[in-house]
Amino acid sequence: MKISRSFCRYLLLLLVFFIQKGYVTAKAFTGTYGINYGRLADNIPSPTEVVKLLKASKIKNVRIYDADHSVLDAFSGSGLDLVIGLPNEFVKEMSENPDHALNWVKQNVHAYFPKTHIVGIAVGNEILGSNDLDLQDSLFDAVKNIYNATKKLKLHKMVQISTAHSQNVFGTSYPPSSCTFKEDIAQNMKKILKLFSQIGSPFCLNAYPFLAYMGNPDHIDINYALFNPTNGIYDKKVNLHYDNMLDAQIDATYAALEDAGFDKMEVIVTETGWASHGDLNEGVATLKNARIYNYNLRKRLAKRKGTPRRPNFVLKAYIFALFNENSKPGPTSERNFGLYKPDGRISYDIGFPSLKSSSANSLKVFRAQICQWYYMLILTLCATTLFQLL
């Protein structure tokens, strides 16, 4: 027993030493499955109800697109891992003023940590793939200032800094091994990648086979996009076969990272999903296809395996999205990516419970108990009456 306690003390001291020396970096993802909790809607459940739903669904990894305090309060003590977002409209301000970045981290992270388990800050979303050149040039300094703020507050070992990219940052991406970053964003991208490689952050990718298929339906097999059985594609350059599009999109990203000199960086999918309803020109956005994609994706992630190019990097993905969001702009599909309807019922069944299911099940149990008690009462009365007659 003494040896065991001494050994445990030694391990604890060793862990403290590694943390102090900077050998332990923040990890913002547990397991393989996460969800994006978007709130551009006026009819979805309260954050408190959402926490109940996520816990019932056993979804631990959650991303939001801002740092709304009602959400941070609701997640307090929940045990859920939360990545918060610095919205694009604040990126330029944070890039120009380190004090503003420090105050933002104080108010939205430090004030809630650790009871609200904030494990990451996503600085902006899809900025380098946008057409806003000023915003592109501001991203690196914003990321650096937010990171320095976490370091000053001694949070940098526990809160991971990231930024998500769309596939617009890539040039040619077919076959996957030929993928590179676009020349016009390469300079800003490399600065960010260099910082991320130093602080242990992953490359965050928003990957949508749904959008890729809609953009080229004549040359893409729908089954390939939906994880259904298919012949897939063969990348002759690296002698690799792909039986689904998401794996190919991720490996294209790894190829671009290698080309840029960052072959050790991990890729995490921060958004992926399939719309269940769309406009007339979005015929592939159906309830059936959305269920197939998300069901197959869940099975794919449960296998805890990597991609053909990176078999040792277990694939991790945040699904887009938790709810259908009726206030989102754009085509109808944008408002119909949710696994859940606004009232908390499932949009389609891929194995998750409905928000109402627990109360409904309780009601069923209660009714069954009432029936059982009533039945026992009748039997008792009958037995008593019979006894008296005898």
Automatic annotation (TrEMBL):
Which UniProt keywords are listed? Glycosidase, Hydrolase, Signal
**Enzyme Commission code:** 3.2.1.39
Q: Which GO terms describe its molecular function?
A: glucan endo-1,3-beta-D-glucosidase activity
Report the sequence similarity comment from the record: Belongs to the glycosyl hydrolase 17 family.
Q: Does the keyword Oxidoreductase apply?
A: no
Please give the catalytic activity noted in the UniProt record. Hydrolysis of (1->3)-beta-D-glucosidic linkages in (1->3)-beta-D-glucans
EC category name: hydrolase
Its GO biological process annotations read: carbohydrate metabolic process
Q: Where is the signal peptide?
A: 1-26
Put simply, this protein is called glucan endo-1,3-beta-D-glucosidase
Top-rank taxon: Eukaryota
What is the protein's species of origin?
A: Lactuca saligna
